[in-house]
Amino acid sequence: MSICFDPNEKIFYLNTPNTSYVMGIYCGKLLLHLYYGKKIDRFVNFIDYLPVAVDLPFSPIDIEETNASSNLLPMEYPCYGNVDFRTPAFHAEYENGSTLTRFEYVGHEIAKGKKKLNGLPATYVDEDNEADTLYITLRDELTGIEAILSYTAYNKIDAIAKSVKIQNAGNQNISIKSVLSSTTYLFDKEFEFVHLEGSWARERNIQKKSLMNGIMQIDSKRVSSSHTHSPFLALARPWATEIQGEVYGFSLVYSGNHIEQVEVSEYDVARINVGINPFGFNWILAPKEEFQAPEVVLTYSNEGFGKMSRTYHELYRSRLCRGKYRDIERPVLINNWEATYFDFNEEKILNIAKKAKDVGVELMVLDDGWFGKRNSDNCSLGDWVADRNKLPNGIESLATKITELGMKFGLWFEPEMISEDSELYRIHPDWCIHVEGRKRNPARNQLVLDLSRKDVRDYIVDSVSNILKAAPISYVKWDYNRNISDIGSEGLPVERQQELPHRYVLGIYEILERITTAFPDVLFEGCSGGGGRFDAGMIHYYPQYWTSDNSDAIERLYIQHGTSMVMPVSTMGAHVSAIPNHQVGRSTPLKMRGNVAMSGQFGYELDLNTLDDDELELVKQQITDYKKIREVIHHGNMYRLKSPFEGRNTVWEYIYKDKVVLMYFTMFTRSQLGKIQVKLQGLEDSVQYVETLSGRTYSGSYLMNVGLYFDNNKEFNSEILVFEKKQ
Ligand code: GLA
Question: Which residue among the candidates 158, 383, 479, 552 is catalytic per the annotation?
Answer without folding.
Answer: 479
